[in-house]
Amino acid sequence: MAADTSADKTASGRFSAWRVFKEALGGNTGWKPWRRNPEPKPRYDVIIVGGGGHGLATAYYLAKLHGITNVAVVEKGWIGGGNAGRNTTIVRSNYLWDESAAIYEHGLKLWEGLSQDLNVNVMFSQRGVLNLAHTLHDVRESIRRVNANQLNGVDAEWLDPEGVQDFCPLIDISTKKRWPVLGATLQRRGGTARHDAVVWGYARAADRLGVDIIENAEVTSVLRGADGAFEGVETTRGTIRADKGAFVAAGHSSVLADMAGFRLPIESHPLQALVSEPLKPLLDCVVMSNQVHVYVSQSDKGELVMGAGIDAHTSYTQRGAFHIIEDQMASAIELFPMFSRLRVMRTWAGIVDVCPDASPIIGETPVPNLYINCGWGTGGFKATPSSGWTLAHTLAHGAPHALNAPFALDRFTTGALVDEHGAAAVAH
Ligand SMILES: Cc1cc2nc3c(=O)[nH]c(=O)nc-3n(C[C@H](O)[C@H](O)[C@H](O)COP(=O)(O)OP(=O)(O)OC[C@H]3O[C@@H](n4cnc5c(N)ncnc54)[C@H](O)[C@@H]3O)c2cc1C
Fold it and tell me: Whose CA is nearest to atom 32 of ligand 1?
């Protein structure tokens, strides 16, 4: 994208059906870049480290809802090059505990209006998410979660095996299988979204409000004043100072925390996913199984998108081991024998930041004026809107919103953990 030093914040204009028509009449020569490519300024009100979905959403809501527009998002590579562009895009809010249900449901409500809000089609498809139960324990836990969800106003249903097959005819409910399907939870409002569109949509909308998105700027150290407070960062594109800072760096959160002089209870692991060759439409919902361990949906291009459990070792390389993929394929075929002749087209990995209680950290750090948003592990895509929304509130007010207060870093010293391993649905 060409450098743009002009003050024009609306270069790409508004997108609409009328605009598509109008541009077509002009030979499609009138389209402009989606956003500027600014040089970093020496100082901002807020600097956000990490140009994934969460960092960009934070910048957008800071500008839109709190009027704080003198904001920079610094990204070491390209926006969406981290987990935001590597995940399997499952969106749902059916978590067990009240604290989690509140923040994920807030996110789901934001998803429901996101395309209109950002003026970019994020292809949010509420096709329904099934979580299969294969054992008596699964059944008990699943029904407990449905009840908890309903008490929290989160849509959740328990389906018996026939109900599962009605909803998703591809699922074999015969009792002869090693892991028979004994039922499933269903969240009809859950589904998938287009991850790149989410990143580009938030980036474009934030840019239009004046936020500087600075790519190829890796933060290499953190500046602290004599009083210990955050003052800015050194980057590969120079020093940038700011009144407040926020680390929103997913798998690299502990690296950044180390630069700032504090520790996080986070382990960074590779998490792999893969897609099959494209098929005609055959699966119109998301199917997840904790026990067999597979989660699968079909993309709009026809590929089956499947996720695995994390690689057990810690690592910062964006790739995982082959045996995880092999195990993943065995699980997929166990559940859907008809997939056995499909070819795998691509596999990849991201680095996820896993907290001991499988819940995120959003709030203050031990460094004054420095905030953090991390620990979403294997399940933060679905929370992109609410994660950004709550961190923006926290940055603007210098104090957490009720939605993210339970997810403070100090819960690991007070013991007020929010253990969501059951609902996280990915083997940790
Ligand atoms: C394979 C896979 C499947 C997943 N599936 C799902 C799913 O189905 N549903 C779901 O809800 N979640 C899923 N997740 C989790 C989800 O992707 C993450 O929780 C979420 O994307 C993390 O937030 P983010 O988008 O901001 O992170 P990222 O996109 O990783 O953003 C962090 C950014 O920080 C940048 N950064 C790091 N260090 C520095 C530095 N020193 N200086 C500057 N920038 C830096 C990185 O380059 C990166 O772009 C999955 C993850 C993976 C890997």
Answer: 249
